[in-house]
Design goal:
single chain; Alpha-Beta Plaits
Amino acid sequence: MLLLFALLIIASLFATRISDKIGVPVLVVFLAVGLIVGSDVLGLIEFSDAKFTKQVADILLIFILFDGGFRTARSDLQLVAKPAITLATLGVAATAAVLGTCIHWIMDFDWMLSMLIGSIISSTDAAAVFMITRQNPIKRKLAATLSVESAANDPMAILLTLAFIGSLTGEGNSLFGFFSQLAWQFSGGILTGFFASKIAHFLFNHLHSENRGYFYVLIIGVILLGYGFADLIRANGIIAVFFMGYWLGNSDFVAKRGVSHFLEGISTFCNMALFLMLGLLAFPRNFAAIWKEGLLIAALMIFIARPIAIWILTMPFRYTAKEKFFLSWGGIKGAVPIVLATYPAAYGLEKGEAVFNIIFFAVLVSCLLQGSSLGKLAKRLKLTSPKSPSSPFSMELHAVKQSDIDMFEYVILESSYSANKSIQELKFDPNVVITSITRSGKILLPRGAVKLLPGDILFVLAPLSKHHELREFLSTGLEPVKNA
């Protein structure tokens, strides 16, 4: 089994090179690899444990969501906080209501069962959204809206699902209990994330270890600490780790650059493992009996329920028609609906297995259709941002104690004042040192006579206090790629 799993990971990694060439999102590649090697196609790996999938998915989502929060700039969250939280709460409820009503009228399902299915598939998938927005240079406002919405919309979907299951089993809570739970899930999760980030910040600055591996172990520990405490007080752990990552990522602490690279690797592995596992869980032979229902529900969700919710609830906010259409198409489904689809069977509902298969098929349609076209749609609607050059090299200042000096990366733009000027002409502050220049995938030594060309990436060693001054001084030319 370990050998097969290792080969599966390697095959998936190299398959992403093909996906880059043909423009298919990597999540679709991971799903496809899982489907091919799973029980119904090649039969190399027998896997059908939905409950185990839920347990593993919960753990993987912890690190995916933390990394998403860690890379969310404060300015981005402030820009989209109101519309994103509106979509994460009222948007999920509206999507579930519209979809449930359509299922009842068109498919003649029982009212409660229809609303249950609508609730299960109402939330967008954070792992899929983060992966696609990172892979495609989508405009900052739209990428941030989708990312924050997808990170925060699980509690509403979970509570709605449990409420309708309770109605079907006769164990439902009161309306007051529902809203009380929802309020605590959000407020308790955000508060836990804030205090957990402060604890993490203190621990990183007081670890004082020369072994950088200890800092990587520490980040895993504090992430699990934040999630575990939120779970202990019955708040939402996913929201807790997202906001914990957000506050920690927008602060300076010892070994931040190295921790950032480590988190990127962990998040990539978790995304890969999650979608491979979902692909393995699929049994195409089970779709023969429900594919029509699954396809219809996917169509109702993609073309009716989500668009209605988006167009109505974004009216108070400044989104153009093109942006609303894009946000409607960005409601990609993934792991959470599949996990929630296991609940009906777990609670002993009569049609639990059929609901799971229908939801799974609808999620696969969403992943394949929306996931593979979201980036292309952004380009067609001209909602993309210029993609900054990236360096094949990385440099960091590894400090075991707090320091007022750090390494920064900047990219020279075509319209830059500093473009086509030599380093000595720019007369940098004596406390600012250019350590190296990346040009066309090669490293150049930063001699004074070297001219800076558009597309060059500079690694700059400077005091933290000089960073904003540098940006101001070079505001017409240098644009930060990464801020350590």
